[in-house]
Amino acid sequence: MTVRNVSRRGFLQMGAATGGGLIIGLTLPGCSFSGALPINRDAGAFIPHAFLQITPDNAITFYCPSDEMGQGIRTGLATIIGEELDVHPHNMTVTSAGSHKDYANPEFGIQLTGGSNAIRAFWGPLRQTGANTRALLLEAAALDLGVPASQLATDNGHVVTDGQRLPYGDFVSTAAGMAMPKQSALKANTAFKYIGSEFTRVDALAKSTGTAQFGIDADIPDMVFAVVARAPVAGARVSAVDSDAALAMPGVRHIVPISSGIAVVADAYWQAKKAADALVIRWEDKPLKRVNSAQVRKDLDTALERGEDLEASSQGDVDVGFDVADSIVEADYFAPFLAHAPLEPVNATLHIRGDTADLWTGVQSIQGAQGLVERITGLPRGNIRVHNLYLGGGFGRRATLTHIVEVTEIAMAVNEPVQLLWSREDDIRHGVYRPASLMRLKAGVSNDGRVIAWQAQRSGGNITTDTLTTMLPAMLPNLPNALINGLSGLAKYVFSQWTVDPSSVEGLHETYDFDNYRVSHATVDHGLPLTFWRSVGHSYTAFAVESMMDELADRAGMNPLTFRLANTRNRPRMHGVLARAKRATDEMVVAEGHHLGIAAHNSFHTDVVEIAEVSVESGDIRVHKVTCVADVGTAVNPDIVRAQLEGAVMFGLTAALYGRIDLKNGEVQQSNFHDYPILRMDQAPAVDVILVNSGGDPTGIGEPGVPPLAPAIANAVFRATGQRLRELPLTLA
Amino acid sequence: MIEFELNGTPVAFHGASDTPLLWAIRDHFRLKGSKFGCGAGLCGACTMHLDDVAVRTCVLPVASVAGKRVTTIEGLTDNHELHPLQQAWVDHNVPQCGYCQSGQIMSAAALLSTTPNPSVADINNALAGNICRCGCYPRIKEAILSVAALTVTDETRAELAYDATAEAPSS
Ligand code: FES
Ligand code: FES
Asked: How far is CA A324 from CA A317, A512, A513, A548, in A?
């Protein structure tokens, strides 16, 4: 048994800055790994680029650059490349790509999965890659067969000529010696064979048989298990520890102080967990310790009262708008802190052997995970192999990589491969959170139902600054800590004093034609770590905007859908979705005692309207059915699009009815599913999805179903009870 | 030492007798299909069958399964055949992240073994202990009903479309 200290000193070094990467709007020096492709070549296989491997016996592997967390991205991206390559996704092995610059998300410039953008961002590049590869295989076949390429066709992984079907694999050795065409013609949308058709997910079988490997399932011979005792108040460091009792417990091998707390390493998880509970730790004091939920709410209010808000965007003349409005409505809306609670708690397994390392985990940025191991160990990036397994839910949580820092610090102090697992209590108490938000809205409406003045203020914490603080060290492993701290501090200053973090106010006006509007923001940061939470700013702004729109429709004496139609004349896509929703509600037979509530929201380039059928019985809000009408442009796999909307309804409903993280003396009060409940099967509504396809390229689907759900329920509750619920979670008076 | 039958094979566990069955199965017997979600009997990710009854194994000390039959998702069928529920899961594109699904399937299989014709209310009762954070509930229900030896009547269909009203007085 050992007690060892981890020192990061000496591992940091300045590296050459090369290439270019775009991180959240800031151009920063090179952060992408550009060595050999992280692909194991099978015998005789052809690897034309980072995305495909084709063997002579026609085994086709697609290396999926985005992380599969349930959103169906492995199936979606395989379908996009497969369409142009002409291989059905079921005829490929789809696997998670390692870390390499070629896998960077084309929009982010780094390897990161989030923002509901993967299908949209890879749509063009992967189609082109598929088309070029198919053209190359055809040229190789033409050469081998002595037939002009124009007389050859393809069908699902085969070259077709004279009624013969010859596998692509027959031509890979010739293809390997030829140059890849650059701009082969893409298919017309009308010729799509796989895009737009419905088939089962490529991961459905593995996930129905218990064989899908998640991070937690990494099973390395001789691995030991780590549990970390963390500060009850975020960010506090250990000031004293008594580990005698823990060290004496069965199976305990090491006690390792790390940056976030004290790690216990044992032969089995259960032993490590029991021993971690036996540690006696005193923690340093933090300002967050003096923060309670009631104070947070008050501080958000005070910031707006004092006029600390900075303008984020505006148009027209709001004051004149209010002067001429027939009626004006003002209201405050509040949304609490939330945890993500993916069902698989975060975890990572790391084996450092001499100057090489292997990391197994499931994260939303495997590049970032690799970068952190590089930063902390000082090993060359090419010596760090990363294996991204399935993610047992992401929702934004797995873009924060604290657990990678922890497992690296622990692995450096022990000789065995080590698996770190967070408990559910760790997840809910020591995570990163959706910020609490206060939204103060004031709107003027004319009697004919036009919103002629719109003022939206928001106060609360900023997501982008906290995210930069955790992402910069991961994405720029060679940048010294001092510079990272400087940049994070600068970002904090910029976003609280100069300009508004776009994530903080997104969704406060964009859905509608507001001729005169003003959006402003006051930063109030209590020090609880914040991050993206499925649909980010929209998760709270839509609640405010759509509740207000409902109040305005009432004021104008209009049907809520007709009212929204009148305010989206210049937004044809949303207008079309609203019109379809109107038709759906006109046709609905609503049971006696049930009431409809509707909400619309544009986010991640997708337009969604949700219609909730709700009853209120003995003080309980019951949601019977939710109809989602959505325009995602071309739906790559319509059944997966429907599944995402169904799931978003359940995710949104959990937040609308139950979700709250409370602080007392800076400590998160909730800890597990008894006090942070997740919607269960017996409370799950039926979901009906109507896809409106206005054509166009695909837009986001992982997140856009969440924002309209809470306001749709709140608006239905108003119809049922006459009560306007302006705080989340929704609680009847 | 604690002896029991694991997926049809007699096994012995030599670790601490208060170790929850889940960790004995995952860490010692290296079967990783059963998952850890809460460690408190609240989410169902760890569901296995104990003598054919669905149990939450994260709170079940391994000592209490001595002499009993434990079945995990790996042993749900013989010879790696697909259980009809597993086929239905694939056909209905049920899984999203997939993490809860071993537990969901084990709960559903235990239900069908005693109640081959479950109503929607039976399904809700049997699976209320299994959280799906991704919200696959509508598809899980449809998949189970598709397997159930039940002719789905119009009445059941209506119940499915509106199952939340099952307890509502107005319906
Ligand atoms: S892990 Fe056993 S019920 Fe949640
Ligand atoms: S599929 Fe993700 S928790 Fe159920």
From this structure: 11, 19, 17, 19
